[in-house]
Write a structure and sequence with these properties.
142 residues
C-alpha cells in the first residue's frame, strides 16, 4: 500500500511543514506558561502538554513515510489543539496559558486549524491513491 520510494505530494509536504510549525507553537506556549506560572501550574502544563509534543513528533515521523493513520492522527491533534487553546483563552480564571501573547495564541489556533485541514486532505489523497492501486489490476507501465 505505501512505498517509501514514492515522493510526497505537495499536500503531504504542506501538512508536514504545518505540523512542524504547530510543534514549535506548542513548545513556545509551554515555555511561556512555565515562565509565567506557579510551580503547581508548571507541573500541570508539562504533564498535559508533553504527550501532545510526543504525539506530534510521532505523527511528523510517520507522515514522512506516507502512513495513512498518521495523517488522520495529525488532523485530530490539530482539532484538539485548537479546542484546548480556545477553552484556555476564553477562561480568564485558568492560570494555564496565562500571559501568552495574543500573537502566539492566534498563531497557535490558525496553524492548528490548518494542520487539521491539510492533514485530512492528505489522508483523503493517500486513501484514494491506495484504493486506485489496490483495485486496478491492469497497470500499464509504458
Amino acid at each position: 500500500m505505501k512505498s517509501a520510494t514514492e515522493p510526497l505530494s505537495v499536500n503531504m509536504k504542506t501538512s508536514i511543514v504545518l505540523l512542524e510549525v504547530f510543534l514549535v507553537a506548542i513548545i513556545i506556549a509551554l515555555i511561556v506558561t512555565i515562565m509565567n506560572s506557579v510551580f503547581a501550574v508548571q507541573i500541570l502544563a508539562i504533564t498535559l502538554v508533553s504527550p501532545i509534543i510526543i504525539l506530534t513528533i510521532v505523527f511528523i515521523y510517520y507522515c514522512r513515510r506516507r502512513n495513512v493513520w498518521s495523517y488522520v492522527g495529525a488532523s485530530i491533534l490539530g482539532v484538539i489543539g485548537v479546542i484546548l487553546r480556545v477553552i484556555i483563552s476564553t477562561q480568564p480564571n485558568l492560570e494555564v496559558g496565562g500571559g501568552l501573547p495574543i500573537g502566539i495564541t492566534v498563531l497557535y489556533m490558525v496553524v492548528g486549524a490548518l494542520v487539521a485541514l491539510k492533514s485530512y486532505e492528505s489522508f483523503l489523497e493517500l486513501r484514494t491513491l491506495n484504493y486506485k492501486k489496490d483495485n486496478n489490476p491492469k497497470i500499464n507501465l509504458k
